[in-house]
Write a structure and sequence with these properties.
- The chain is of the alpha+beta class and 301 residues long.
- It folds into 2 domains: 150 residues, Alpha-Beta Plaits; 142 residues, Alpha-Beta Plaits, CATH 3.30.70.520.
- 23% of the residues lie in helices and 35% in strands.
- It is built from 6 helices and 17 strands.
- Strands 1, 2, 3, 4, 5, 6, 7, 11, 12, 15, 16 and 17 form a 12-stranded mixed β-sheet that branches. Strands 8-9-10 form a 3-stranded antiparallel β-sheet. A two-stranded antiparallel ribbon has the order 13-14.
- Strand 9 and strand 10 form a beta hairpin.
- Helix 1 crosses helix 2 and helix 4 packs across helix 5.
- It is elongated, with a radius of gyration of 21 Å.
Length: 301
Amino acid sequence: MELEGVEIEDTFAEAFPIKVARVLITAVNEKWAMEAAKETTGFGTSVIMCPAEAGVDVVVPAEATPDGRPGVAILICTFGYKALDEQLLARVGQCVLTCATASAFNALKEEEAEKEFNTGFKLSFFADGFQTKEELDGRTVWRLPVMGGEFVVENDLRAKAGVAGGNFFILAKDQMTALTAAEDAVAAIGKVEGTITPFTGGVVASGSKTGSLKYKFMHATVNEKYCPTLKDKIEGSELPADVNGVFEIVIDGVSEEAVKDAMKVGIQAAVKVPGVVKITAGNFGGTLGKYQFKLKEVLGL
């Protein structure tokens, strides 16, 4: 299979269930909303060791937010709802409440949510009795007086079952070509609402495999078959002779369809970069997760 002259391997990306909260952060302008969003989603690349996978979803225009100010939607993902409750309280409390002019609102519709957390109620106690409760745009919110003015937070933040680990690999002639294609893919995915690319800059430099060839105490180790510096040193390398640059894009989303859409636009953007040789995906034969995104079906080939 080919797309734009680039080989698309007949394989699938293996993904797994996750619990997802979607939070809308608003501020006096997009700069400060984004500052809060980036800080709130920090240390959120992989649940292998991070307490959550998290990232920026989309920029939300002022006319579409509860308080009429520019906003940024984020996703926070954990394996269970208890952990998600804890992460919401910690991240919103430490990174949004503390950010100049920022406010936080739920960004999931009631009909699609499975769980509600009273994060705003818990954070209201920071105001030490000076907090007030009111209705804003049909939402129950708390107003907390702070040095910078007021912090407004919705009483309940919602969550639902989502999908984590959708992915594809970009194989290119050299490292910088692969990086350019990865950057273009991340930019395209950034327009797909309900998805994030949680790794640094949206790009994974150190794609992993489950377990280890040598160390029993390791849960995940380097995917050596896709390391350019090892292709002539190991048996079973998956890299063609003309490939010297590989990056992975990992996608989390609020639904299978959202992840599928993100994979599609990401791959379509990546293959337009001259020097990209092949697109493939990471899977473990179906042992990691129940979702299998077949590349040919994602792309309609």
